[in-house]
Amino acid sequence: MNALSPALAETEGLAAWIAPTRTALLIIDMQVDFGSPGGAVGQWGVDLSTVPAALAAAERLAQGARAAQVPVIFIGLMTSAKTDSAAWSERMRRRGGDPESESGLCRIGEPGADFYGPLPVPGERVIAKTRYSAFHGTDLDSVLKGLGVDTLIVCGLTTECCVGSTAWDAFHMDYHVFVAEDACAAYEPDLHAGALKSLELNCAILVKSADIAAAWAEAEAHG
After folding, report:
1. What is the pLDDT along the chain (223 residues), one digit of tens a residue?
2. Cα–Cα distance between 68 and 91 in angstroms, integer?
């Protein structure tokens, strides 16, 4: 995967593109049910070996963002029986799955909905969603506009699903979208790579978390 190289970043001005005055970091669905061996997905027997590195990279991004005064916004799936999608359940049934058991991800008030890995600190905004995209049915767009943000760094779980859905919607809403490729994960490496390739081709710029942190550190040093 061809992410933004240091040479291109220097030539084109990554530090300006993701300047703290215009950028927010979105951390998407890094929650127990998706990332912890004890969560729902882990209990289903899914291989979570791709997840720890992404969690660690997202934690470093969060720390770098806070140091540079970049807003950090946590996005979490928060569901209840009232918010369950009939279309999603029917799709699962038609695929031979169990809609009842697989609808119970990230239930409000249950441990599976807790954030896992990077955690919000006091004062940081948490956006609850009930569908894949962080923009669907939420006030995220108005929050970002209130902050004067036109650029997003997106990371989280999983690359092909909620990260990708959010990146697409952000691009459709005229945000400049950067995906921190090593701070995202899918449960299958080829799915992660394919999702990144599609995002890079159509709506986002891929960046390594170390390059993002370096750009923010540069802004902090000159701030």
Report:
1. 445 555 444 445 899 999 999 999 999 999 999 999 999 999 999 999 999 999 999 999 999 999 999 999 999 999 998 888 888 788 877 877 776 666 689 999 999 999 999 999 999 999 999 999 999 999 999 999 999 999 999 999 999 999 999 999 999 999 999 999 999 999 999 999 999 999 999 999 999 999 999 999 887 777 6
2. 43
Residue 85: burial class (beta carbons within 10 Å; 0-12, 13-18, 19+): middle
DSSP letter assigned to residue 133: S
Which positions ≥6 away from 138 have C-beta within 8 Å?
Answer: 127, 128, 129
Whole-model pTM: value is: 0.92
The residue type of 68 is: A
CA atoms within 13 A on the CB side of 52: 4
Domains of the chain: 6-221 (3.40.50.850)
Residue 27 φ then ψ, to 5°: -110, 115
